[in-house]
From TrEMBL:
<dbReference type="GO" id="GO:0005739">
    <property type="term" value="C:mitochondrion"/>
</dbReference>
<dbReference type="InterPro" id="IPR023584">
    <property type="entry name" value="Ribosome_recyc_fac_dom"/>
</dbReference>
<feature type="coiled-coil region">
    <location>
        <begin position="180"/>
        <end position="207"/>
    </location>
</feature>
<dbReference type="GO" id="GO:0043023">
    <property type="term" value="F:ribosomal large subunit binding"/>
</dbReference>
<keyword id="KW-0175">Coiled coil</keyword>
<feature type="domain" description="Ribosome recycling factor">
    <location>
        <begin position="55"/>
        <end position="217"/>
    </location>
</feature>
<keyword id="KW-0496">Mitochondrion</keyword>
<dbReference type="InterPro" id="IPR036191">
    <property type="entry name" value="RRF_sf"/>
</dbReference>
<dbReference type="GO" id="GO:0006412">
    <property type="term" value="P:translation"/>
</dbReference>
<protein>
    <recommendedName>
        <fullName>Ribosome-recycling factor, mitochondrial</fullName>
    </recommendedName>
</protein>
<dbReference type="Pfam" id="PF01765">
    <property type="entry name" value="RRF"/>
</dbReference>
<keyword id="KW-0648">Protein biosynthesis</keyword>
<comment type="similarity">
    <text>Belongs to the RRF family.</text>
</comment>
<keyword id="KW-0809">Transit peptide</keyword>
<keyword id="KW-0963">Cytoplasm</keyword>
<dbReference type="InterPro" id="IPR002661">
    <property type="entry name" value="Ribosome_recyc_fac"/>
</dbReference>
Amino acid sequence: RRCVQQVLLSRHMATKKAKGKGQSQARVNISAALVEDIINLEETTEDMQAVIEALKEDFSRNISVRTSPGALDHITVMTKDGKFPLNQLGQISQKSPQLIIVNMTNFPESTAAAMKAIRESGMNLNPEVDGTVIRVPVPKVTREHRESLVKLAKQSTNKSKEALRKVRSKNISQVKKFKSKVSEDTIRLLEKQIQQMADEAVAEMDKLLAAKTKELLG
């Protein structure tokens, strides 16, 4: 164990020297193999990357200037039997560039719930019902609509950052469980490594948001 701590400290001191070579902040780069009995850093990386990927998917699927039938597929509908994606309850098709149709013939009892889910999806949609058919007018691409989508993208990014904070907190809590078994320096370095990983993930999210904002505003 002492050997592991010495390796960690020597690596930390080496990264500190980089400050004088143009780096504004010392970086920690701990080998996952050295601390695998304390925490699985590879799993931590995967968990943080999963949050980023979920944000990318949300941007791609739900936040677009032009509403397409595919954008409605995964709107979650609350029914008496539980939650279901809209495309499992209704047949979604585009009748014209200005109109999307959701045919609820197979699950007519869920028509009202589907209407509510579409209206509250945050996609600026105002559905109309005709029996078991839901008509969804496609919003005009106005400046106001673009700006509302940017707000939606910011909200989604903030939710993702909150999810990331939970991942970071869970992993730091895991490290602190070993306070009585390893040195304070080892704990401190691991906490710094986890925070550094979280900061890099946040920076990537901010880049995604900036790119999406530029795309939406045209």
